[in-house]
Amino acid sequence: MPSIPTHSRAAVLRRFGEPLAIEDVPIPREIEPGAILVKTEACSICGTDVHLAHGELALKVDLPVIIGHEMVGRIVAFGAGARRDSVGTPLEVGDRIVWTHTACNCCYYCTVARQPTLCENRRAYMFETMERAPYLLGGFSEYGYVLPESGRIKVPDTVSNDLASLCSCAFRSVMNAIGQIGRIASYDTVVIQGVGPLGLLATAVARTSGARRVIVIGAPAERLELASTFGADVTIPLESTTADERAERVKSLTGERGADIVMEFTGHPSAFVEGLVLPRKGGRYLVVGQLGEDTTLVAPSMIVKKNLNVIGSFSGDAASYWKALDFVEVHQKDFPFERMITNRYRLEDVNLAIERMRRFEEIKPVIDLTE
Ligand SMILES: [Zn+2]
Ligand SMILES: [Zn+2]
């Protein structure tokens, strides 16, 4: 591999709560069968990056790690047998791809349950040490390593690096989640809780799915305005209403029944309690944003008495990545996806970007590694 350097500059977290350090991390010389080496083009920042860096995640992290997990890369080298993506599209050096956390294809969840995001042998990017080969398992890095068991999808030429990054976590999670709730009918009212990237993307998908009405609850006002451009018919400001007032508003918009479908993308446990109130009897409640360790108090009888379907959704499989990229390719003129990309940073400025993300000054900032 003459043109590939020996090391990749990467943003490494050695201790929770400390700034990331830009370090030289080895680039593996051997690409194992099924694996791919890429040059990272872009990696957007996710709330999960911020929580992981501060040690606030209810998941095991094997420090030191390269942070970042929403990356798009350009192929520079293949392991044997890796020249097709997960839907059969031929891959060549120079093609851009996004890729999934791994699924082993030989456990109960992969084979019987067919829920590969729940794989018992799952390996997740940015959770494994960079001190052991293949080192480059995080996104804020000049080069990245796609593990053999990772699904991989070729990025359509018309989809930018920024939006491909968006598809590699936020949007695939939305696609995976909405894929689990069944049909959205033309007479359904959908309530979306949260106006972060997932809430906004879910609004666009609900709109396109033909829902009768899409109601979005969130804050601040500028985000609600953005939600309207993503297809919200009605927005309800979180800051100037009480939970009871919001529930009344949803009822008044739905013949006093409540929403047919409610989707949670907030990450706040209190939103879950409210989300049990908003659906109609027999309605569906999709819970996606809750990944922290905080708890809340609920009356489980609400689920029984209303005959609710409460559905959790975690991460996304290769199909969800494909669906997200396809949605962006088809609908990029219908929705202002680029307005979600609030800033572009160089790798050296990753700590600033994370800090601004933590202060809610960003929707989706991107670390741009092309230059
Ligand atoms: Zn993410
Ligand atoms: Zn498995």
Radius of gyration: 21 Å
CATH class term of the largest domain: Alpha Beta
- What is the number of independent domains? 2
DSSP strand content: 25-35%
Report helical residue fraction: 25-40%
Number of helices: 10
CATH superfamily of the largest domain: Medium-chain alcohol dehydrogenases, catalytic domain
Structural class: alpha/beta
Bound molecules: zinc ion
Low-confidence stretches: none
What's the β-strand tally? 16
Major beta sheet summary: 7 strands, mixed
Mean pLDDT: 96
Can you characterise this structure?
With 371 residues, the chain is an alpha/beta fold. It folds into two domains: 7-173 and 316-368, Quinone Oxidoreductase, Chain A, domain 1 (Alpha-Beta Complex), CATH 3.90.180.10; 181-312, 3-Layer(aba) Sandwich (Rossmann fold). It is built from ten helices and 16 strands. It has helices at 47-53, 108-111, 161-178, 197-208, 221-229, 243-252, 269-277, 301-305, 318-331, 350-358; strands at residues 7-13, 21-26, 36-44, 65-66, 70-78, 96-102, 143-146, 150-154, 189-193, 213-218, 234-237, 259-264, 279-287, 309-312, 341-345, 364-368. Helix 10 links the parallel strand 15 and strand 16. Helix 3 (161-178) crosses helix 9. The protein is globular and about 65 Å long. The model has no long low-confidence stretch (mean pLDDT 96). The structure holds zinc ion (ZN) (2 copies). The site of one zinc ion has 5 residues, from loops.
